[in-house]
Amino acid sequence: MTAYLEREGYSYSATTIHKYMNTEMGLHSIVRPKKPGTKPGKPHKIFENKLNQDFLAGKPNQKWCTDFTYLFLKNGDVRYNYAIIDLHDRSVVASITDRHITSDLAVRTLQKALDSQLPAKGCLILHSDQGSQYTSKAFTEFCESVHVIQSMSKAGYPYDNAPMERYFNTLKNECTNIYEFRTEEELYQTVEEFAYVTYNHVRPHSYNDYRTPYQTRMAA
Question: Is residue 110 helix, strand or coil?
């Protein structure tokens, strides 16, 4: 927030911003709903970590990260968002929210990303955790068919996929945790607008020296 204000020609300390947000505006933190429990499936295939926390990419469509997160409707029903970001500029290249957490959803999200970006065959690494959707026969065979190289984090080690964790934190802190969604259509539309409009085109990102992902991508 402070860095953004400085871009606009204003300069305030974090303490001042905190005082006005809490005392004057009555803004406070939001408690997130608890994650629903899941049962891990038997992996079809597990891949080595080809990134090893090297989250730099000199060009677009060299290294992508993917993961899913839980989102909630007002009545407590859960929905699942799959997203893929490009490590070159942290842009969201694909995002789909659905009712079921399946390998099919993972395949559809990757296909959406490939359709929009057209990366060179055999030159793209897709990094994920060892979730059953990514280790499933359907997903691993799909990656092979489209010449995508899979990479996976060490089990139980979220730091290996830190950029995805950061994106989902931003999505929730600046979007889904602020509103109540009565219908899944409202949720789906809001998440898509945040990913493709606000996050990619409007919101400055510290990784990009406070340029937007789109500005960085166009300069590549």
Answer: helix
In angstroms, what CA-CA distances link 171 with 2, 69, 167, 175? 19, 10, 6, 5
pTM score of the predicted model? 0.81
Q: Rounded CA gap, 193 and 17, in Å?
A: 27
- Name residue 195's amino acid: A
Under the banding of pLDDT at 50, 70 and 90, the label for residue 13 is: confident
CA torsion angle for 13, 16, 18, 19 (degrees, to 10)?
Answer: 170
- CA dist 196 and 194 (Å) reads 6
pLDDT tens digit sequence for 129-150: 999 999 999 999 999 999 999 9
Helix (H) or strand (E) holding 149, with range, is strand 148-152
